[in-house]
Amino acid sequence: MLYLICGKIAAGKSTFAKQLSEQSGTVLISEDFWLASLYSGQIASLEDYARCSGLLRTAMAPHIVGLLQAGVSVVLDFPSNTLATRAWARELIEQAGVAHELHYLDVADELCKARLHARNASGDHPFETTEAQFDLFSRYFVAPQESEGFHVIRHQIKN
Questions:
Q1: Which side of the chain, N or C, has fewer Cβ within a 10 Å radius?
Q2: What are the entry keywords (predicted)?
Q3: Using CA atoms, how far apart are residues 67 and 69, in angstroms rounded to an integer?
Q4: What is the DSSP string of 46-83?
Q5: Which of 25, 53, 15 is closest to 137 using CA atoms?
Q6: SS3 call for 12
Q7: How many angstroms separate the first and last alpha carbons of the chain?
Q8: CB-side exposure of 48: number of CA atoms within 13 Å?
Q9: For the whole model, what pTM was predicted?
């Protein structure tokens, strides 16, 4: 089983991913962890993120498919926030021949920004994101569409 997560910055994707990964036989693969480990200090813009994320996705894809084919469930804490990122996930699903769930965390921008401020203040997250960066990334966000053919589970979060 491949678990995918969609939601804006600070919607709670990583927290939700961690909860999903607590199931037996399930591993968590976190984009933020790998980006911070491999590209520390190199991600200062949307373009930097897109470049580094693309490289990471290319490198990780065979490993993810291998885990899935070995019967390990994978929680992919990579944002499935655009048509392109979901197309990449669709390729993983098809190559591995596994079932999937796409969890859509539907959270209002105001709540995401409040969470973002709290996250930045805590210093616990590998990346500090400004409101301007939130707004920029949010412009590229596309909620999952039925026409994409994913099994979408929508979580409307109010607090």
A1: C
A2: Cell cycle, Cell division
A3: 6
A4: HHHHHHHHHHHHHHHHHHHHHHHHTT-EEEEEEE--SH
A5: 53
A6: coil
A7: 29
A8: 11
A9: 0.92
- Write out the two tokens for 47: 């373009």
Query: Mind listing the pLDDT tens digit for each residue in 9-43?
Result: 999 999 999 999 999 999 999 999 999 999 999 99
CA-to-CA distance for 156 and 86, rounded, in angstroms? 20
Quick: pLDDT tens for 97-133. Answer: 999 999 999 999 999 999 999 988 887 877 788 899 9
What was the pLDDT predicted at 119? 86
Domain boundaries, the chain: 2-157
Give the pLDDT of residue 99: 98
2-157: CATH number: 3.40.50.300
What's the confidence (pLDDT) of residue 124?
80
129: part of which helix (H) or strand (E)?
none
Residue with tokens 């960066």: 133
